[in-house]
Structure formats: C-alpha cells, structure tokens
C-alpha cells in the first residue's frame, strides 16, 4: 500500500471517530476534585431574569427549556433540559451575556 492509500485510510478512520468523549460522572468528578487538577471553581452561581433575554429584551429561545447561570468570575453556562432525563450543558468562554447563547443545535 502506497503513501496515498495510507493517507486515505487515515482520513476514513478520522471520519468514523466520535467527536464527543463520554465520561461517567464518577470519573469526571473524581478528576476535578484532585488537588493538582488545576480546576477553577466558582464560589457563587446566580440565575437572573436578564440573562434569559436577547439583547432586544425578548425571551431567548435557547432558554425556553433551560436557564443561563452566571458565575462570580463573569463566566456564563447554559443548562438545557431537552427531555425529562436528557440535559445539555453549554459553555463558551467568549460569551459575555445570556443573549450570546443561541437555539442552534451545537
């Protein structure tokens, strides 16, 4: 098999990889609780009505089944409840307001 064939084979493998990494909750929390994890944890989290609105004051569709939470370091987090037992956590360090979250299925 030539170099071109190897390259094509590697590209096919990349296509089949799952872009998401599933970690059981037990592993996730054990890792962040380690003293050397470097994880920065907020000391305060709040949920305000203003964070649930778009810039023009209308309700943000991304918050129709969830809420935006504001950390004490100004970071924002959106928790969406998609089904009774399915929820999604969305975080983007560049978001400065709740209006920055969209209803787009990321």
Name the features.
2 helices, alpha+beta, extended, four-stranded antiparallel sheet, 106 residues
Brief synopsis:
The protein is of the alpha+beta class. It has one domain. It has helices spanning 3-16, 25-32; strands at 45-46, 66-71, 76-83, 86-91.
State the domain count: 1
Strand order of the largest sheet: 1-2-3-4
Give start-end ranges of low-pLDDT stretches. Answer: none
Question: Percentage of helical residues?
Answer: 10-25%
* Shape field: extended
- Oligomer state of the chains in this structure: single chain
Please indicate the percent range of residues in DSSP E strands (runs of 2 or more). Answer: 15-25%
Radius of gyration: 19 Å
From N to C, what is the helix and strand string? Answer: HHEEEE
What is the residue-averaged pLDDT?
86
Number of strands: 4
Terminal Cα span: 38 Å
Q: Counting H and I runs of at least 4 residues, what is the number of helices?
A: 2
Task: Give the class from helix and strand content and strand pairing.
Answer: alpha+beta
**Largest sheet entry:** 4 strands, antiparallel
